[in-house]
Amino acid sequence: MKSSPDEIYNFVFRGLLAEEALDRVGRQSKILSESSDVEIAKSLSLDLLDEDLVMQARQMSVVYTAIAAFENAVRGLIAKVMLENVGAGWWETKVSEKIRERAKTRFEEEKNIRWHAQRGNDPINYTMLGDLINIIRNNWDKFEPYIESIEWASNIFETLERSRNVIMHSGTLEKADVERIGINIRDWIKQVGA
Hints:
Layout: H1 5-24, H2 37-43, H3 51-85, H4 90-94, H5 97-112, H6 129-138, H7 140-143, H8 150-168, H9 175-192
Helix pairs in contact: 3-6, 3-8, 3-9, 6-8, 8-9
């Protein structure tokens, strides 16, 4: 069926009106993940920076991606295991006061800076890798079915945190360091599944 120009115009015009109405009622703007890498690079003025430094940073961004995904997968595993074994109040009853207070402080600091995106509302999003291994250690009976040993897990976390810190402070890892990260992540996934 062929549409007339008037029907097409009405369809497009109604779509534009709907878009405008959504904007008026406070529709969220597009999130960064919807932007292309080229658009993001342009927004960041990467073309104005030293090409070699940008290339090194891009290589390390791939490594950071793996570590960040690992860290968030561990957060998900902890939340899942604790929720299944302890229930909804697990954060208050099974996480040390020190970790809870640090997470709360980070949350409050980010909450007060309203002009910047936050990590989320879940307190586990405000933990560090070291906090995550301590939550596992302090609730070992819940995680023992998934993890070979706490020492094994601790070694993986220490290795990844060391590499993460180098990258987060604009450093560059050597190939052996990157390979070590890959081996540790593969071992963790084979053992734990997440």
